[in-house]
Structure formats: C-alpha cells, structure tokens
Design brief:
single chain, about 160 residues, Glutaredoxin, seven-stranded mixed sheet, two-stranded antiparallel ribbon, about 30% helix
C-alpha cells in the first residue's frame, strides 16, 4: 500500500506527544492546516529533512499552521533526536504497532502530509523532495497570510531528491 495521495481524507490521529499529552488531528485542524511528518530517528534522509522542517516551522508555525513529527521511535529516542537536530516543533509517538503510520500507508520515511483544514490531504511527499518542501512552505505562508520566504538559502547545496 502506498502513502495516501492528495485529495484523500486524512485518517484521524490521536497520539501522545513526547510529554505524554494526547493530541488529535481534529483539534489541530480547527486552527488551520497540519503538516504531519512521519519519521524514524535513525533514518539518514529524516535527519537531513527535519532541520528544513524546523526552519519552515520557525517561519510559519504557530496559531494558524500546526507542525508535527510523527515518530516511529520511543519518546526518549525522539527527544534525543529533537535535541541533536534542533527540532522545536511537537513530536508525537506512533506506538502500539505504528497504527497511525499504517493508516496513512507509510512504506518509507520521511513521509510528509500537508492536511488542509477540511481534513483532506493537500500534499503528500515521500523522502526528501525539494520542490515538495517549497510547495508546503508556500501553502504554510498562504495559511498564515504572510509573504512566502525562500526555504533554502542560495549557498546551500540542496539535492532535488533523496529517497527515504
């Protein structure tokens, strides 16, 4: 089964964050779009991608756009990942057989879903795809009513794609 495609309804998510507090997709969507980034802490492509997601979070995260990492690891390892890679946006723990990952059809990580407030998947991105991240950043800017800013710096050597 492949990751859910744009236009599909996003399955409900109700998971604990790294502080053992339950959060739900339904509650988050009341504020605006949600970026859910499924990952594993030992995945090299995830380690490459997440600092760019953090950069996007710093530009657009907050009251109108929710950013979540959905970890396939335990809370301790996930907190260590956050510290090592400077991630400040919330991380959720997909435990108990990866129920959320399975509902979203995750076969590779990272897999990102931008979910619109109506509960439909707007963007699906598997692995690191530069164009997809730029598209997600543009949608986040639109949702916040702010001008889009470049996600990647001119001096950075960024590949177009890295498989997950």
């Amino acid at each position: 089964m492949a990751a859910l495609a744009p236009g599909k309804a996003a399955p409900a998510i109700s998971l604990e964050n790294t502080n053992s507090q339950e959060v739900s997709l339904a509650d988050a969507l009341e504020k605006g779009p949600v970026l859910a980034a499924f990952f594993k802490v030992n995945c090299p492509t995830c380690q490459f991608t997440f600092p760019f997601l953090e950069r996007m979070y710093e530009m657009y995260g907050g009251s109108k756009v929710t950013f979540w990492g959905v970890s396939q690891n335990n809370a301790r390892d996930t907190r260590d990942f956050m510290k090592e890679f400077g991630i400040k946006f919330p991380m959720l723990i997909d435990k108990d057989g990866f129920a959320a990952s399975n509902r979203y059809g995750i076969t590779n990580v990272p897999t990102l879903f931008l979910i619109s407030p109506d509960g439909k998947i707007q963007v699906t991105s598997v692995g690191f795809a530069k164009a997809d991240l730029e598209n997600i950043a543009a949608e986040a800017a639109r949702a916040t009513g702010t001008p889009a800013k470049p996600l990647f710096k001119p001096a950075e050597m960024i590949p177009e794609y890295k498989p997950g």
